[in-house]
Structures are given as C-alpha cells and as structure tokens.
Write a structure and sequence with these properties.
Length: about 475
Amino acid sequence: MNMAKAQSDSQVGSEAVVEQSLYAAHKKIYIRSVTGFFATWRWALVWFTQLLFYGLCWLPWNGRQAVLFDLVERKFYIFGLVFWPQDIFYLAVLLIISAYALFLFTAVGGRLFCGYACPQTVYSEIFMWIEKKIEGDRNARIKLDQQAMNLHKFSRKFAKHLAWLLFSLWTGFTFVGYFTPIKTLAGEVMHLSLGPWEIFWLLFYGFATYGNAGYMREQVCKYMCPYARFQSVMFDPDTLIVTYDAERGEPRGPRSRKRDHKAAGKGDCIGCNICVQVCPTGIDIRQGLQYECIGCSACIDGCNSVMDNMGYPRGLIRYSTEHAMRQKWSRQEILSHLVRPRIIIYGLLLLVIVGAAGFGIATRTPLKVDIIRDRNSLSREDESGKIENSFRLKVMNVSETGRTYSISASGLEGIAIQHKPAIEVELPAMTSETITVEVYAPIESGKAGSNRIYFDVKAIDDEKIAVHEKASFIMPQSTGR
C-alpha cells in the first residue's frame, strides 16, 4: 500500500513539472495603421526630429558648418559657440540636464520619450510607413507573407528592402556628416575616396538603422533597452500612464450597435482587439501596465475610433493615474495631483542647472590659458642678480576672430616678462600657440621657496576678454637673507 502511494505521489509530482524555455521564438507583429490625436503628435515629432537631424549638418554658419564635431581638430562647433577639450565640463552638465529631464518627464507622463522621440520609435515609424506604401496595409502584408514566393512577392519585398537600405545609408551618411564636414564627405562619396573610419561608421550606423528599425523593432524595446527595465522605479501612483478602464470595459464581448449592451450585462469593450493590432510591441493593454508598453498611445487612438463607431463615450483606454482609476478622479483632479513634491524638486533642479549652464556659456571668455612650469630648471640667477623662472603658456583663441593679446605678470615687486612690462602675441581665429616665457623678479621681492604670482592675458582690442591665471615663482633657498 505504501509502495503504491509512493508511486502515485511520484507520478503526480512528475506531471506537475512544467518545462519552460528561456528562449522565446520571435513572432512577427503586423502593426495596423491608426489615426487620431496622439498619432498626429507622433508624426509631428517624427518630422521635427528628422528635419533637425538631416538638415542641421547642411546649415552654413560663418563660412563653416553650423553644427560640426571636428574630432581631428578637437573642436566642437554649435552655431556661434566653439567648444574645446577644456570645455568637457559642459558635456557633463548636458548629461546631468538630460538625466533630470528624463526623470521629470517620466514622473509626469511615463515613457513619453520612448513613445514619441526615441530614435528607435521614430525610425520604426518611418520604416513601417515605407512598408505600408510598398506592401499595403496590415491585411495585405499578412496575405503577402503567406503566399509562396512569386514574381509579385519578390518585387514587393525587394522594393521594400531597397528603400529601407537606401534610407539607412543616407542616415549613416548624415551621421558621419556631423564629424566630417558634410560637403567634404559628399565629395568623397562622389569620388569614392572615403577614409576607412568614415566607411566604417557610415556602414555601421546605416546597417544598425536598417536592422533595428526594419527587423528588430519591438525586440529592441523589450529586450535591449535598459530604460524599459527601470522605468517602474520612476513611476508613482500619480504618474500619467496609458490605462484600460476595466470597470467600464468588462465583461467584454462582441455585440450589435443597436443592442443595449448594459442591459445584456456587458461592458463597453467589444473585444475587437484593435488595441493589440495597433500596438508596436504587440501587448494587450487590457492586461494592465506592462514593461513592454512604450507609452505611444496608439491603443488610445485605436480604441477611441471604435468607441466613436459604436456611439460610446471615448476614454475606455486613456491617459490616467493609478490613484485616479482607483478613486475615480475627474480630469481636473488628475491635473491638480500632477504637481507634487518630486515634480517640484526635479523641475527646480532642472531650472537651476539649465540657468547656470546658460549663464556660464553666455559669459564664457573666448580665451583660454594653460600654464606649465619648466621642470628642468626651477630657478636661476641672471647676470643682473635677478631670479629667472621659465614657464610655458598655451594661449588659445577660442573665438572666430583673430586677436592680439598682451601678456604680463604680477604678484611680486619689480616682476617682468623677458625684462619687459608685457609682451604681445598675435593669434588667428580658432588657433592656439605655446609660448615659452622667462619671468624675472628681484631677489629681495619674495621669500625663499614658492611665491604666488599671476599671469594676465588680455585682448588688445577688447579688455573684457582677459584671463587672470595663478602660478608659482620659485626663489632659491640660499639667498643670503
């Protein structure tokens, strides 16, 4: 009896074991086109971002490209601003601003960036538009893929991939055009004289666009993007997210427009699955918030069109918050709860950082000076009895106007540069020059050891352009004092 019971338990245990694969085979998503308020906004962002990306590199400014990141010359041009390697601080500030802006927008409206401005979303929209124009709408594409290969199918597929590939290569060309002057790059392409790094990045960025937007699409958002994984940390119960009103929509099911569905005990959802068909990641929003949701609101537009056809109120799927759904808040109550402590903190921090960065850039002196002591000779006494220290000054004219600069020293009585009160150096626009200078001071003007002195570098034509840099002047230890 015990043996039979043990055998029975073993069988039950073996039947309860469920094998689950760690690899999920990719299932192609056929996205249905949708129109509406949010779709219009998405396409507006597509046009804005792409006109910006493809157009800025062709915009001239002061005889050069308006936006150019010249890695060879180590100069970044952004309209009237020129940044040098010494301005790396501004890059750190830009990253901080981007982070706080992401925190702020996510806390207010969820994954707004993902749904409307992320390059993956934008290029997927463009590629899907090309696909629709060549292969047809959703049903036509499904029917085409189910057909055996024939001349019609081959020609459609070939035309689609050719259009994708040409667009991707143009995208790669534009990307490289921000690092190599775009007109120079165009000439190199025409004459087939591209350098190896230009060829690599053009093809790499082009094929990355082709693969991500043409093939991987939702897989990038679901499996590769880290933002999808930690977005929930930035959400709270008052964050606006795409939500399905289950209390209003359930129980769902098909019905006639003329039939009173309330009397039949049904909710407003007719089970048409439009919300699933228009979703770029293929999720069902009716199952609740999921990390795959990029907040594009395509399901809202799709559901609203169905509600209009059925004569039901819009908003079965809508932007709302967890608190609003639970407590049945009105739109005014939802908006009143958007301004909360974390939003105020993020907003104030962002405002302060942007303001400080803007002020720093606006008041930035177009002159930089680096001072390096001559380590081979700390100090020496010349024929007149004065102490000499040697320095190397790297003077950088970071403006787009050539200037002459006056260099003088102060901090010790009787101090002079090369036995002169000041020397002059002429620098063309956007150039730098390293100058070796000998600084002299009377032996009685300072103490033995290190003495603080200052170099003053000023533009002759504009005294506002000036730099006051400190340095150390070494007096010998055995001065006889």
